[in-house]
TrEMBL record, chain A:
The keyword Cytoplasm does not apply. SUPFAM superfamilies: Heme chaperone CcmE. This is Cytochrome c maturation protein CcmE. Its main location: membrane. The chain crosses the membrane at residues 16-34.
Automatic annotation (TrEMBL), chain B:
Belongs to the CcmF/CycK/Ccl1/NrfE/CcsA family. Residues 315-639 form the Cytochrome c-type biogenesis protein CcmF C-terminal domain. GO terms for biological process: cytochrome complex assembly. It comes from Eiseniibacteriota bacterium. One of its GO terms (cellular component) is plasma membrane. This is Heme lyase CcmF/NrfE family subunit.
């Protein structure tokens, strides 16, 4: 845009320039999206799928979902160890950080991190509350009052 | 009370349908008396929707626990303030509440546009009432807050403790006001498309309502961030969660609209573009509602999965298809004969701003839906976290910030290269000087430096615009500077109010830049021990236990000193809600203009009273909230009827 001529350029060449400008912006956003997606993509994987993978694979940036094995929770100060299961197999998980309030035995959790020889090193732990903000009222689970009679 | 509520929602639904029918009749016959009846039916529907909401509020206040909704979202110990908030705390109540907001908006339209063109307004009322009927149909047939429970309960289970926070009472209404508010400009756009009244008339009406909704949506998003920051305990206010994205995308599209309408007004250009923008904005709000309510995307905000999702899916398909068809039919009439004079002009900066805003919106959309798309195609589940969004949106945000400074400096029509060099010289030098000073002060983060530099640039632009405006008024009318400033806001309401909004954005970006320097640390302390963190000393003085009938609370008593000067007593705590059997951590935040010290009680030992603390040091977070307030002030300055000589066509 440094070579703007004071003479009136024809509408056609003006429009071509706009088109080029638009394409540049679109390409820039496209590149950002593409690059971002490649760098930031995190794969969901099941516990058994994780165990089936050879350890020398690229096992960084994984998200594993499962249920906390009852009786496996070991909390020491800021380090939390527990076993995560998908019903058939289980892996040991180590997590360092603030434990979500909804974390507990038999609760569904999602851990994000890397698989190592010693087990899964989680850098992020998300605990799903069984009833998020509201008990399931519209589903087939039946209205909650029935499950908690007065 | 239950019966009154049941009949009210039914009556409201019937009246909404009647109003829509009357609107159709008024449009076909062009009879003003039928339009008057339509407007009255709109108000009657609003009255019964209000009555239904009052019924719920009354039931919450007296504790009518035979209603499932009341039972599930409140209990006897809850303060009145939170009981009112419980109206929109759950699924079915919040849908009724949406309907009520839309009914209120519709009433506002019926009053504000009572004298306006029938051809434009009749289809607009039909659209508004169709959407209202949709919400009321859900309330009546799918998710009814007045449903009776199987037993009469003596007490409720209470509201989720996470939601018991002042911001949580204000944030959802603001957000809903924003999201549902875009129905109004959409309805007016439909009026224009249906009737073929495609001039500036519709756009000026739609602009007002779009600005109202835009403002509420922005504030709602910031308040949501405040709630997350203080309540969720991960140290931040924005996580690129699908539900946050759902509210952010329409905001971006609407931001593009409120800018591009200025081009249509001045140059009669971009008429298709503006129409498309408002349709896109509305459809994005519907899409956002759909992904939130259907439980299709896992998110911390998801409501329980329910059949309501199908209702919204159907609604989205209908509204998207309708929008596309209407645009296709009217595309020929919307084409403009005018072209831009020059590639280098104010108009182009607006175009660029629009393009980047929409690019950002679609990047966010892609990040939100692509996990589903990829799962559908390749069968692998993936997730795109905050790094994805930050990589895209930081450069997008910075580009928009710079444009905010550049735009007002570039003249309309055609810029002269020599004069441009003069206008750009000072702000550019200022930006570079700001970078140099900050760099030598030890700020060594590229994005942060760029942000501060752009902020300096934009700030200069805003100040010089006010300076020029005041000088011009003083020389023409001899007013004193204060009066001249006041008159700027009256005479150039949208322009100067807009600059105040820009000022708010600058302040917000300063807050964003602070996040580049966030630090975190964690430790375990015995009572009496002191922890040194940067210039702070945190002395842990033991646990404090407090019991109330509903909550058992354990707090870590921490004395905070900065350079040996006592600053505050921090009490991060864990609350155990007996009735919900739920744990809720409450963080302690020491907030100053420079930085926030954010402390979480991670865990504690009952026997030894050892406490593990997690600490976040978040510089400049306060600027984010302050910037939000400045934006609201700017928005109000734009919307207030300051200029009383306003003609019906608008100033």
């Amino acid at each position: 845009m440094n070579s703007e001529e004071p003479t009136k350029s024809s509408a056609r060449s003006g429009r071509a320039r706009f088109l080029i400008g638009f394409l540049i912006v679109l390409a820039a956003v496209g590149v950002l999206v593409f690059r971002g997606a490649r760098n930031a993509m995190v794969y969901y994987i099941a516990v058994s799928g994780l165990l089936a993978k050879p350890l020398n694979d690229d096992l960084d940036g994984l998200r594993v979902r499962g249920v906390v094995v009852p009786g496996s929770i070991d909390r020491q100060e800021l380090v939390l160890k527990f076993k995560l299961t998908d019903g058939t197999e289980s892996i040991p998980v180590t997590y360092r950080g603030v434990i979500p309030d909804t974390f507990g035995e038999d609760g569904e959790v999602v851990v994000e991190g890397a698989m190592t020889q010693a087990g899964f090193e989680a850098s992020f732990l998300m605990a799903k509350c069984p009833s998020k903000y509201e008990a399931e009222m519209d589903g087939e689970g039946g209205p909650p009052p029935a499950s908690k009679p007065a | 009370m239950i019966d009154l509520g049941q009949y009210s929602v039914l009556a409201a639904l019937v009246l909404a349908l009647i109003a829509a029918g009357l609107g159709v009749a008024a449009y076909r016959t062009r009879r003003e008396d039928l339009l008057l009846s339509t407007r009255h039916a709109v108000m009657a529907a609003a009255f019964f929707t209000s009555l239904a909401c009052l019924g719920i509020i009354y039931a919450f206040v007296v504790g009518d626990y035979q209603m499932e909704y009341i039972w599930g979202n409140s209990d006897r110990d809850m303060p009145l303030f939170y009981r009112l908030g419980a109206l929109w705390g759950g699924q079915s109540g919040s849908i009724l509440f949406w309907g009520w907001l839309l009914a209120m908006y519709s009433t506002g339209v019926a009053i504000r546009h009572r004298k306006d063109d029938l051809r434009l307004m009749a289809p607009a009322y039909v659209t508004l009432m169709t959407v209202l009927a949709f919400f009321l149909a859900i309330v009546n047939f799918a998710s009814n807050p007045f449903r009776r429970g199987a037993f009469v309960q003596p007490d409720g289970v209470g509201l989720n403790p996470l939601l018991q926070h002042p911001a949580m009472v204000i944030h959802p209404p603001c957000l809903y006001m924003g999201l549902i508010g875009f129905t109004v400009p959409f309805a007016i756009a439909v009026g224009a498309l249906v009737s073929g009244q495609l001039g500036n008339e519709w756009m000026k009406k739609a602009r007002f309502w779009a600005l109202v909704a835009w403002l509420f949506l922005g504030v709602g998003n910031i308040l949501g961030g405040m709630w997350a920051y203080q309540e969720l305990g991960w140290g931040g206010y924005w996580a690129w969660d699908p539900v946050e994205n759902a509210a952010f995308m329409p905001w971006l599209a609407a931001t593009a609209f409120v800018h591009s309408v200025m081009i249509q007004e001045r140059k009669q250009m971009l008429r298709i573009w503006n129409m498309v923008l408002i349709l896109v904005t509305f459809n994005l709000t519907v899409f956002g509602t759909f992904i939130t309510r259907s439980g299709m995307i896992s998110s911390v905000h998801s409501f329980a999965q329910s059949a309501v999702g199908y209702w919204f899916a159907g609604f989205l398909i209908v509204s998207a298809a309708f929008s596309i068809v209407m645009i296709a039919i009217r595309a020929k009439d919307l084409r403009s004969q005018h072209h831009l004079d020059s590639f280098f002009s104010r108009e182009s900066t607006f175009l660029l701003n629009n393009l980047i805003l929409l690019g950002g919106a679609f990047a966010v959309l892609w990040g939100t839906v692509s996990p589903m798309v990829i799962e559908g195609i390749r069968g692998v589940r993936i997730s795109l976290g905050p790094p994805f969004f930050n990589q895209i949106m930081v450069p997008v945000g910075l580009a928009l910030l710079l444009l905010m400074g550049v735009g007002p400096l570039v003249p309309w029509r055609r810029a002269n290269w020599a004069s441009m060099r003069r206008t750009f010289l000072i702000p550019t030098v200022l930006g570079i000087v700001a970078v140099a000073i900050l760099y030598f002060m030890g700020v060594a983060h590229a994005y942060a430096l760029v942000t501060f530099s752009f902020c300096a640039f934009v700030l200069w632009t805003i100040i010089s615009e006010f300076h020029r405006g005041i000088r011009a008024r003083r020389s023409s009318s001899g007013e004193n500077p204060i009066k001249a400033l006041g008159q700027l806001f009256v005479k150039g309401q949208r322009r100067y109010g807009g600059y105040i909004i820009h000022l708010g954005v600058v302040v917000i970006f300063i807050g964003f830049a602070g996040a580049a320097f966030n630090k975190q640390a964690e430790t375990t302390l015995k009572p009496g021990e002191t922890w040194n963190f940067r210039d702070y000393q945190l002395t842990y003085r033991g646990l404090r236990v407090e019991n109330t009938p509903s909550v058992e609370s354990v707090a870590a008593d921490v004395l905070l000193e900065e350079n040996q000067q006592p600053q505050a007593i921090l009490l991060p705590r864990k609350d155990w809600y007996r009735k919900n059997k739920q744990l809720a951590s409450e963080v302690a935040i020491h907030s100053t203009l420079g930085s926030d010290l954010y402390v979480i009680l991670a865990s504690f030992e009952d026997a030894t009273e050892e406490a593990s603390l997690k600490l976040y040091w978040n510089p400049l977070v306060s600027w984010y909230w302050i910037g939000g307030i400045v934006m609201v002030i700017g928005g109000i300055l734009v919307l207030l009827p300051l200029n009383r000589r306003r003609t019906p066509i608008g100033a």
